[in-house]
Amino acid sequence: MTTKKATIKDVAREAKVSIASVSRVLNGLGGVTAETQAAVRKAAARLHYVPDSAARSLITGRTHTIGAVLPDLYGEFFSELIRGIDLAARARGLHLLVSSSHDGVEDAAAAVRTMRGRVDGMIILSQFVDGAFLEHNMPTDLPAVLLDSPVDNPRYPSINIDNVAGAQAMVKHLLDAGHASVAFINGPAGNYDAQEREKGYRAAMGEHAPTVPLNIVAGEFTEESGYRAGRELLAQAHRPRAVFAANDMMAVGCLYAFKEAGIRVPEDIALAGFDDILIARYVTPSLSTVSVSIADLGRSALLLLTELMEGKGHIDGPHTRTLRCDVVARESCGAQHTNVATKHPPALV
């Protein structure tokens, strides 16, 4: 026989208080005595009462849910980013709703529209999001934090990785290690991170190796594109002495292409990536990379979003914050293991 689910009326009757008092206690609205609070909570526990989330949202105007729109859900970078957001959200009694936007601007717009009314705030990382996108798709009263975005809008604060400085530091490190020429495997066209990392590569080569021709091949931030780029670099008449991939996933694919061709890393060609995903330290040889605290990026975004939610859309301080990153030298670059700090301030979060 099915047991009837307890209602708020049952709790009020058990506690000998009004329904309004039960609602105020369970929704944390205050305005009741300590004795009433204790009586309501004891009654709710005895009856195994579970508040209806939809009804609770109507009363409080809050869903206690955060939305995250990401370009993809595949790969170590995004799983670690989600982990950082989720851990910080759960610590604050919030749930996480995640969607992806890898199929284009319409897909990103659909993901944002789907979350309307379901979330109290959003974290958005998407190459398709610009000022016009936000104006057309974001409700004016919904707080949002952007990740790795060129958008400069005080309504939508952003947290960016210091891609330029990180890429510059890695290229300089490779050149200082004695590698006379450095090739660069770029990320997807139109991707902000990829553009900034290419900018750092160009700046470092121009400053520290001005007579060496730039060598940039296309990539897509995937292992497969790194593998193809590695084969393309091996087919060049003059092979580079070092390769810097714009992310670790491409570096891993490139490493496989080199091994398949019998090319020794770092003896024949040095190799480095960007992000410091977990697998970077476990491949052979271990991968030199630019380390980003990915989980901390997610945590920082969640903390900034809660600031917005509690402050009704306003924050103190700059609306663009930067997360520092550092060179981590491992076996693949042919230099001594070390951490090489980049010259920029720590994140303002």
TrEMBL record:
The name this protein goes by in its record: LacI family transcriptional regulator
Pfam families assigned to the protein according to its UniProt record, in alphabetical order: LacI, Peripla_BP_3
Gene Ontology MF: a single term: DNA-binding transcription factor activity
Keyword set includes Iron-sulfur: no
InterPro entries tied to this protein: HTH_LacI (IPR000843), LacI/GalR-like_sensor (IPR046335), Lambda_DNA-bd_dom_sf (IPR010982), Peripla_BP_I (IPR028082)
SUPFAM superfamilies: lambda repressor-like DNA-binding domains (SSF47413), Periplasmic binding protein-like I (SSF53822)
Tree of life domain: Bacteria
SMART domains in the record: HTH_LACI
PROSITE patterns according to UniProt: HTH_LACI_1, HTH_LACI_2
Naturally occurring in which organism (per UniProt): Dyella japonica A8
Keyword terms, alphabetized: DNA-binding, Repressor, Transcription, Transcription regulation
UniProt domain HTH lacI-type: residue ranges: 6-60
